[in-house]
Amino acid sequence: MAQRILYDVPSLTIAYDYTDEWLYLDWQGNLTDEEVMKGALKLLELLRQERCTKVLNDNTHLTGLWADAARWGGEVFFPQLQEAGCRYFAWVHSPERYSQLSAQLAIQHTAAGIVFLTFQSLPTAAEWLRHQP
Question: Quick one: three-class SS letters along the chain?
């Protein structure tokens, strides 16, 4: 897959995938609410810049509980992401339970018009996202 890295810090790498025309996020480590929010705002900026409608959000390397950021994501961030053009969001769960709970909290707290689906594996998430218009 042909990717260009747009953002790279220890907690998050964001790349644009030319083959599938989506943004790929690879979260790393035990993150604070502040790190999650900062990364989310960078995603928003890059989604606008690349004019893309799909996000592949990989949490397989993520641990920790970030409930405040999850609530903020659902109530504030996801509506902004939808306004910026995001239509499909494939979310690959962390194997770590607290991180899964935070992700579920974020999705439960949003009414944004984005189709969210959660997955246990990256290949399955990518396959679903490829079949979205």
Answer: CCEEEEEEECCEEEEEECCCCEEEEEEEEECCHHHHHHHHHHHHHHHHHHCCCEEEEEEEEEECCCHHHHHHHHHHHHHHHHHCCCCEEEEECCCCHHHHHHHHHHHHCCCCCCEEEEECCHHHHHHHHHCCC
Q: Where are the domains of the chain?
A: 10-130
**Model pLDDT, residue 109:** 65
Report d(CA 9, CA 116) in Å as an integer: 25
Q: Model's pTM, two decimal places?
A: 0.89
Neighbours of 8 (CB within 10 A): 10
Whose structure tokens read 């220890």? 10
Give the pLDDT band (50/70/90) at residue 39: very high
Q: What is the pLDDT of residues 87-97, one digit of tens each?
A: 999 999 887 77
- Whole-number Å distance between alpha carbons of 49 and 58: 21
CATH class of 10-130: alpha beta
